[in-house]
Amino acid sequence: MPTFLAVDAGGTSTRAVLVDVSGRCLGYGQAGAGNPVSRGIEGALASLEHAVRAAMGAAGSPAEGCASAVVAMAGASVHSTPGPLAERLRRLGLKGGVVIDADLLAMFFSGTYQPDGYALVAGTGAVAARIEAGRLGAVADGTGWLLGDDGSGYWIGHHVVRAVVAALDGRGPKTALTSALLTALALDPAGVGRHQGRPETVQRLIHELYALRPVELSRFAPLAFAAAEDDVAGLILDRAAAALAGTLAAVTDGAVPGPVVFGGSILTRGVRVAAAVEASLPPVLRSGGAPVLVSDGVVGAAVLVLRHAGTAVDADIFGRISRTLQALRAG
Amino acid sequence: MPTFLAVDAGGTSTRAVLVDVSGRCLGYGQAGAGNPVSRGIEGALASLEHAVRAAMGAAGSPAEGCASAVVAMAGASVHSTPGPLAERLRRLGLKGGVVIDADLLAMFFSGTYQPDGYALVAGTGAVAARIEAGRLGAVADGTGWLLGDDGSGYWIGHHVVRAVVAALDGRGPKTALTSALLTALALDPAGVGRHQGRPETVQRLIHELYALRPVELSRFAPLAFAAAEDDVAGLILDRAAAALAGTLAAVTDGAVPGPVVFGGSILTRGVRVAAAVEASLPPVLRSGGAPVLVSDGVVGAAVLVLRHAGTAVDADIFGRISRTLQALRAG
What we know:
Two copies of one chain form a homodimer. With 331 residues, chain A is an alpha/beta fold. Chain A folds into two domains: 3-110 and 296-330, Nucleotidyltransferase, domain 5 (2-Layer Sandwich), CATH 3.30.420.40; 116-295, ATPase, nucleotide binding domain (Nucleotidyltransferase, domain 5), CATH 3.30.420. Helix content of chain A is 45%, strand content 20%. Chain A has a five-stranded mixed sheet, sandwiched between helices. In chain A, strand 4 (66-73), helix 3 and strand 5 form a beta-alpha-beta unit. The longest helix of chain A is centred in the last third of the chain and has 21 residues, at 231-251. The model of chain A has no long low-confidence stretch (mean pLDDT 90). Chain A binds chain B through residues 76-78, 102, 129-130, 135-144, 146-148, 150, 158, 161-162, 165-166, 169-171, 195-198, 202-203, 205-206, 209-210, 214, 217, 246-247, 249-251, and chain B through 76-78, 102, 129-130, 135-144, 146-148, 150, 158, 161-162, 165-166, 169-171, 195-198, 202-203, 205-206, 209-210, 214, 217, 246-247, 249-251.
């Protein structure tokens, strides 16, 4: 029975699984960041190789190799240049072709085997898609920290630090986020002296925060969740949820009722934002049932590789992929 | 009669003037950007030297040199390290000391000789100060593009590009800013094809805009002023004005009634934002008369150098500085 290779190459980690045509997962491996944009092409390929070798090792490396592969990654819609990646996978034993799919599609198929529906993913970035016949029909946002990603981890973290600077400055209301942020940065909340008409704490915050890459502000998103009873933090989370609902609404088509798959830490780790987005779903999207929460795109990558190989993935195969993968990951 | 050197070293240009104790301006010179942060220390010193030589040349280089100097620049409150700057000015004929003052203070004293009042400056950045006894009593915002500068040229430009990306994405209302921005970037507004579920125009915009340094987004602020009848553009300008009014309110003290000095292109080139901020001034700030609009800080740098030399700058001296400088700049 031929085996297939499915890889979910994310900005934080890379996950690989070997799967057979019945949906039985044979081996699973994991490595560091696999996104060529954030990690660089060589680093991404090294992570890919590490995760694939681990998966093959766990599966007992079938001598006949893999029939074909899917690698799911962000930005696939722009940079569909699988050359070096295919070359690396061939050296690892891939016999057939490799398809690079959007991570958004893999996220969707981690939650459902149905070919139509919606995915809303809010991690460091935020993006929504309508999936039709197993492909991206419409995509909204995912335009990055500078131009969009409304309601994402970056967006929340950015609003947290701006709210704290405004509060210290007297431009904004006092907030529990101030001591939380100062503590997170190991700054003294009691440093209330003034220098040239300005609180010293503001100067220190400016120094610390401009030393980060902008996207790193996403690390402060959890401060808003932790202080959710605070008015300022609560408003940031409510506005994030409204923005995410708006992004999903931008791809909603009355002819496609769902299901809706939620992914990314902003939607899956705390209930507040996910519940608010769910409550604001238009009726057409509620008819498909409650949103399905998924933690990553590895199940979906396995669905995609089987679909590309001509297998009609049904409830039975989908259930087998999910169960056997869960067992491998737990093992 | 001794002469004094006053320099306004800005992010776009550097202006120098020689002034005597009566307030008579003897020579004026101008050069490129003089801010060490944006230009680098060597570039800033070269601009300084160029502007000072031009001013001295125009004044007929008094053989006795300059008694003392003031250099006004942004970030003076943080980096008060006049070492290399003083060395360069001594080689040009400065006999006495040099004081580095905040550009905000120079902007204030370009509008008034009174020692107490307020300055609100909105150029690429945005900052407000309360001036007491000729010094910065309280400062709000000026925290940079990432953390604040609410209502600034960057802020407006950033909101313009986000509004356009959201409109193209279907997440935000249609706006006249879209064709204005696409035209400004020489992109084809008719490029409405879709690739992987996303409008191609969005991809091109992402490519063009991430190639800029973030602060360069301030170049798109004029698009909002030009499209002010457009609902989206009008709302951006109204929110900018509200933010600037809030920044000024954060430094307002009932015991200091004004005057209020407005500087920076957002407040001085179009009337819309300035008028909205003026309309929202608290009563205590209206008692000092309408805000005074100033185009730069060179008059104020001259006021500061005379004040530091012990001259009580009054209406008479202030008027002479303004008139004689205007004549030199016109000539």
